[in-house]
Amino acid sequence: MTVSARFLDSSSFPPAPPEEAAWDALHAAAAARGDSLAFQSLVNRHGPALHRFCLRCLGNHQDAEDICQESFVRAWHALPSYRESGSFRAWLWRIALNRCRDHARSRSTRLRWLCDWTSDSPPDAASSSPSPDETAAHRADLDRLARGLALLPENLREPLVLSAIEHLPHREIAAILNTSTRAVDNRVHRARERLNAWWSRQP
Questions:
Q1: Which residues of 106-125 are buried (b: 16+ CB within 10 A; e: fewer)?
Q2: pTM of the model
């Protein structure tokens, strides 16, 4: 599947395996009781993905690093309010998203969701060494997609990116965005419709 197809295709990604959520819940409960090693395990598990998420929100490595670290600090202090019945990942991502929004607004900048694609989205090709033409086509595809996403309103762009890039299930996206799963379903569907319509008009 090409990068753009992730956004244009209406198929959804499967939720995380139950054992992963159970692992998170176990370590979060221990961390809430003051177990710093358990919390460090959560940082090690989720840190790289959370940093990538913040980077896509802010488009700046230093800002992403600062917000990622701040999000974990806030999570550590807020752990007593965490409920085991929820998804720890969604809870953590919501903290980070709110910090990214605040940071972007404080600098009077727009959220920028696409950057450093080469680190985790290589061109689709049978060979591990794509040709120059394939690399150029991949870059053009990304640039075109970035333009299309920038035209979407925030309430449509965020759930689409969380679904298509972070591969989060809609129930977790609903928890992150503080809305219902049905609302996420509708927003992702509308976002794809708008993006498809825009894409089809491009030369």
A1: eeeeebbbbbebeeeeebee
A2: 0.68
